[in-house]
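Hey, I'm writing a tutorial for new members on how sequence and structure tokens pair up, and I'd like a real worked example in the thread rather than a made-up one. If someone can provide the structure for the chain below, I'll link this post from the tutorial.
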Amino acid sequence: MISRDEMIQAIQHEYRIIRHLHSKIPAESYDYKPSEKQRTLRQVLGFLVHGPAVCARVLSTGDQSLFGKMDEDIKVYSEANFLADLEAAEKEVVDNVRSVSDEKLNEEIQVFGVTMKRSSWYLNLILEGLVAYRMQVFLYLKVAGRPELNTANLWLARDANPGETF
């Protein structure tokens, strides 16, 4: 099983990648969405700010009603303070993971009608959520006019070096 420190390091790495990808967003692309029924890039960024932090709160308190407010916050999210918002969200998530007791991590809880250990929920909802939505940002960027972005941007949080191939 992944240790608490490894989980925190993995979460922090995802936030680094998200900050890097954010630096690649052209100002005119925030309203981009691939189809009418999908979120805009702005709303995906809103999810990255609100989603993991709300999931951490739900996992530590058991209050699943928090998910409803999150959906509303995402719909009206403004990217103007994205980096500061993301930094605050990262701090909240990391502090939450650090503070939950080993006993609580090993408790089985039910979320969305599924029962598993709280530690597994942290991985499934927070870490995997960060990976999934940063991938969505990457794909939106590629389609919206940033074809030069590549594996280094997506997994290493950096631009590829000249001549470097993946």
